[in-house]
Fold this protein.
Amino acid sequence: MTYENYFLTEDETVALYTACAKLPFERKLTIPWGKLKRHQVVSFTTRPGVLGADTLGWASERLSYVGPHFTIAEGPQEIQSLAAKLSTHTGRDINYLSVVLYENGADHMSHHQHREDRGYDAAVYIVSTGAIRPFELREVATGRTHRFFAEPGSLITMSSEENDTHTHAVPKDKARTPRIAINCKSVGPRVYSCRKGQDAPEGAVYVGRETRDRKTGAILRPDTPFGNHSRLDPEDFRASVIAKMKRDSSLLQASLLPARQRPAVLVHRSGTRPMPRKSLVGVGKRKGDDMENTGISWAHNTQNFWVGRDKIAPECAHCYIDRVLERQGREPWGEIYRTQTWAAPNKWETDCAINNYAKRVFTCSLSDFFHAKADPWRDEAWRIIRKSSRLV
């Protein structure tokens, strides 16, 4: 899972919340208990959500009872803009958005998995607006729970694999104002894994490792795309599958049919097991944290938005910055260089939010924050600093 604290600007967040608050929410009954749900949902898909005939076949079983549903084109401009921005941000076509309203802290969503997504390439992207509410991610195998607070305008990304290995929830809270979360998905083709012993339906298209008959040595499926690679990175594998489907126009058209009518994708990845990506850094100072440690005893990290200073006094003659920047091949005095570490504070902030922790960060260890040549960048740096409330 990854967490981005300011995916939307403040103006975008307010506009999205205002537009979503006007949607026709309905508090539906739970099935089969018949009790009122503790959240309300309005959903949007790429095509009309007619039961059994929508483009997202997996969704047809749910859209009839979760709440009102429309096409994305019928939604407010802010919903369409979010889908477009998220598609650009992720490089994937966002074709399903579920707008969930929590009226107050009593409204919640218990720990759950998306069973309707199993077998599909359906990463989940959650954009938060309104009240700040806690979000929990629990490992199925160990029961270990990660808890943090989702800020307005933030983006939570959960991979398809994490839907199998974790549950997630929005627990009860003391919030008195509404929170509106927009759960977005890019739903790809149905995938069946030979490795897991899953039986694929007739007509499924095989995309995977080249296989041979053990007795004759003959290639069983000569059109497989990966030769004899015994291992392949899951993301590379997924990209190759999508590329193969795009090359086969008939298969691409079939992927737009309802689930019961379209062919499946049969997958065999010998020696490859998808693992959830560990995108969040750990707490404190640990060896091997990849540029996130510092030799300064009182700090967990150092952050320089730019490096370089001016000599203004005789005491500057023996400054350590001179030695550091010269080793980097840079002019240590009079020049300012923008760094490539601007995303680091957001990563540390995510770590602190999940582990209920604060970090000490030494800012400008190699620079002058108020140097005149840094004027074009300073407002952006201030914005990051103000968003990093758990970094001291």
About this structure: The chain has three domains: 2-188, 194-268, 301-387. The first strand starts at residue 2 and ends at 4. The chain is about 25% helix and 25% strand.
